[in-house]
Amino acid sequence: MPAKIPATVVTGFLGSGKTTLIRHMLQNAQGKRIALIINEFGDLGVDGEILKGCGIETCAEEDVVELSNGCICCTVADDFIPTLEMLLGRENRPDHIVIETSGLALPQPLVRAFNWPGIGTRVTVDSVVTVVDGRAVTDGQFAHNLAAVDLQRSKDDNLDHETPLSELFDDQIACADMIIVNKSDLLDEAEADTLLTQLASQCRDGVKVLKTSMGALPIEVLLGQNIAAETDLSSRREIHHHHDDDTDADSDEHQHGHDEFESFVVTRDEIADAKAFGEHLSQVIRDHDILRLKGFAAVTGKPMRLSLQAVGRRVDSHFDRAFNADESRQTRLVVIGEAGLDRAAITRALCE
C-alpha cells in the first residue's frame, strides 16, 4: 500500500497571515510538490489568485483548489471530502497537501474528517498549524479588522455556528500542534514575551509556540511533523462544543526571518540500543528546547539503518533500509531550533 500523503491544516483568523505563510512555504518548497486547498468564499478572498500566481514550478495551477461554498468545517461532506478524493486520485499525486481554512472554521471537524472511510488509509494530518495575529491578540481583538470578519460571516450562507471570536480562538489554540505568532515585528520585546507565555499556558503539552514576521518560517519547521492528528482527537477536543487570510500579500520575497532559526548536524558512532537512544533524545530535546530533530542512526548488530524523527518530546523511529556496502555506519542527526542553541552542549549530549 502506498504511503499516506501528509496534510497540514493551517488555521487562524482573517488577516492573521495564513496566505503569506503558505506563499513563503511554496517559495521555499525544496522540490516538494505541494497541493493547496483554499477555503475562500464570497467577495472577500483573493488567496487563491495570490497563490495560483506565485509562479512556482512545484505548485502548478492545477495544484490549487478553491472551496468557495462556505466555511470548510460546515461543508465537509459536500466540498472537502470530494476535493481530497480528487487530489488523492490523480496520477501525479502531491507530496504534501496544505489546507488553508476560513478564518471562521473550527479545526476539529476538519481533522475528524480524515477518519472517513476511503480517506484515512490514504492521507494523514501531519499537523495543525494555528496562525495568530500577534498585534491583534495583544490588543484583545483576535483579528485586526473585526468589520471584515463580520462581513465574512454575513456572506457565508452555510455557516452553522455563530461562535464568538474568543471561543473560536480558544478552539484554534486547543487543536494546534504548532502556534505561530505572526506580525511579531509589530510587538515590542515585552509584549512578544508576554503573548508567547500566555499562549504556551493555553495549549497542550508539547505544542511549540513560535514568533515570526511575514510568515517567514523554514519549510522543515512547518512540514514533516508526523503528528497524525486524526488519531489524537480526544486531546484536542472542542472547548465550547459548538458544532486574512492575508489579503495584503505582495510580490516581496520576504527573505528575512530565517535568521531566527538555526540548524546543524551532529555525527557520532553507532548506538547500542535504539529504544534507550530514543529516550535519551527526548531528554536532550527537553533540556535544550530543540524544535525538531531528524536523521539516521546505525545500531550495533543491526544491518538496517534507523530513521529518526523528533517533534517536541515525541521521538518516532523505524528501520528504513539496509546500509550500503560502501556506506559509513555512522549516526547523523540534524538539529533544528530557534537561534541561540548551545551547539557544543547539544553535541556533547547527543554523543553521550
Produce the secondary structure layout.
Elements: E1 5-11, H1 18-27, E2 34-38, H2 47-52, E3 64-66, H3 76-88, E4 96-100, H4 107-112, E5 123-133, H5 134-138, H6 146-155, H7 165-175, E6 178-182, H8 189-202, E7 208-211, H9 219-222, E8 261-268, H10 274-288, E9 292-298, E10 304-311, E11 314-322, E12 331-338, H11 343-350
Parallel strand pairs: 1-4, 1-5, 2-3, 2-4, 5-6, 6-7
Antiparallel strand pairs: 8-12, 9-10, 9-12, 10-11
Give your account of this protein's structure.
The protein is an alpha/beta fold and 352 residues long. It has two domains: 5-236, 3-Layer(aba) Sandwich (Rossmann fold), CATH 3.40.50.300; 258-350, 2-Layer Sandwich (Hypothetical Protein Yjia, Chain: A,domain 2). It is 29% helix and 23% strand. It has eleven helices and twelve strands. The protein has helices at 18-27, 47-52, 76-88, 107-112, 134-138, 146-155, 165-175, 189-202, 219-222, 274-288, 343-350, and strands spanning 5-11, 34-38, 64-66, 96-100, 123-133, 178-182, 208-211, 261-268, 292-298, 304-311, 314-322, 331-338. The strands form two sheets. It has a seven-stranded parallel beta sheet, sandwiched between helices. Strands 8-12-9-10-11 form a five-stranded antiparallel beta sheet, covered by helices on one side. β9 (292-298) and β10 (304-311) form a beta hairpin. It is globular. It starts with a strand and ends with a helix. Residues 41-50, 158-162 and 241-259 have low confidence and may be disordered.
Query: Hey, roughly how much beta strand do the residues contain?
Result: 15-25%
Please work out how many helical segments DSSP would assign.
Answer: 11
CATH fold-level topology of the largest domain:
Rossmann fold
Give the total of beta strands.
12
Question: Distance N terminus to C terminus?
Answer: 38 Å
Instruction: List SSEs in N-to-C order.
Output: EHEHEHEHEHHHEHEHEHEEEEH
Q: Give the oligomeric state.
A: single chain
Apparent shape: globular
Task: State the domain count.
Answer: 2
Helical fraction equals: 25-40%
Largest sheet: 7 strands, parallel
Unreliable parts: 41-50, 158-162, 241-259
The CATH architecture name of the largest domain reads: 3-Layer(aba) Sandwich
Q: What's the alpha carbon Rg, rounded to whole Å?
A: 20 Å
For the record, the CATH class of the largest domain is Alpha Beta
Strand line-up across the major sheet: 3-2-4-1-5-6-7
